[in-house]
């Protein structure tokens, strides 16, 4: 008999587990295809007892993405591909039925929906430019800024304003923001921006 221990469920509910800014690809054997990402995220959420959240990015590290066989995209293409990936991910989490999606960057032809996550997994998105901030307002559940990229506290306030306006135009509640952020482990607090 094989006994599998799941350390993710041994912690209290105060811990959330997440994948930090996964770029998506239309090539299933490269970076991460949105449909496979959706199924993996749902499985992790089920294994963790409903404590998984997903963070996505449009790319930005093009050399690394290309080294794994992913496409080099323009900033506009990257934002459009991410928006398609979010739509595919949400559709995959809503069984029963099939996902049929034909976009400019991603295409799904009859993938079985599911598994359904244990809870409504939030999709957090990292980005700073206006198109990304507007996408966050239209389609994401939260903004995941990286502290080293924000030069001043006002940048966080300006970003939130763009996100909120885009959400209102899309008829949505503004997504969460500022609830969490990223910081590289090799950057000590002494290197944080002065406003921190």
Topology, element by element:
Elements (H helix, E strand, L loop, with lengths): L16 E7 L10 H14 L4 E6 L4 H6 L7 H18 L5 E5 L4 E6 L10 E3 L4 H10 L2 E2 L9 H17 L6 E2 L19
Parallel strand pairs: 1-2, 2-5, 5-6, 6-7
Antiparallel strand pairs: 3-4
Helix pairs in contact: 1-3, 3-4, 4-5
General description of the model:
The chain has one domain (16-191): Luciferase-like domain (TIM Barrel, Alpha-Beta Barrel). Helix content is 33%, strand content 16%. Mean pLDDT is 79; it is low at 1-9, 25-31 and 192-196. It is built from five helices and seven strands, in the order E-H-E-H-H-E-E-E-H-E-H-E. It is α/β, with parallel strands linked by helices. Helix 4 (130-139) links the parallel strand 5 (123-125) and strand 6 (142-143). Strands 1-2-5-6-7 form a five-stranded parallel sheet, with helices on one face. A two-stranded antiparallel ribbon has the order 3-4.
């Amino acid at each position: 008999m094989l006994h599998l221990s799941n350390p993710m469920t041994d912690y209290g509910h105060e811990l959330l587990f997440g994948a930090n800014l996964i770029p998506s690809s239309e090539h299933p054997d490269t970076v991460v295809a949105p449909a496979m990402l959706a199924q993996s995220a749902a499985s992790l959420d089920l294994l963790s007892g409903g404590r998984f959240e997903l963070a996505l990015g449009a790319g930005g590290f093009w050399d690394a993405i290309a080294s794994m066989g992913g496409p080099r995209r323009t900033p506009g293409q990257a934002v459009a591909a991410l928006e398609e990936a979010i739509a595919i991910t949400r559709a995959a989490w809503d069984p029963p039925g099939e996902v049929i999606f034909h976009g400019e960057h991603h295409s799904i032809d009859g993938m079985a929906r599911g598994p359904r996550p244990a809870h409504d997994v939030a999709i957090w998105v990292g980005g700073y430019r206006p198109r990304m901030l507007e996408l966050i307002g239209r389609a994401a559940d939260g903004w995941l800024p990286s502290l080293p990229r924000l030069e001043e506290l006002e940048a966080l306030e300006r970003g939130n304003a763009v996100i909120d306006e885009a959400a209102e135009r899309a008829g949505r509640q503004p997504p969460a923001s500022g609830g969490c952020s990223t910081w590289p482990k090799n950057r000590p607090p002494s290197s944080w921006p002065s406003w921190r």
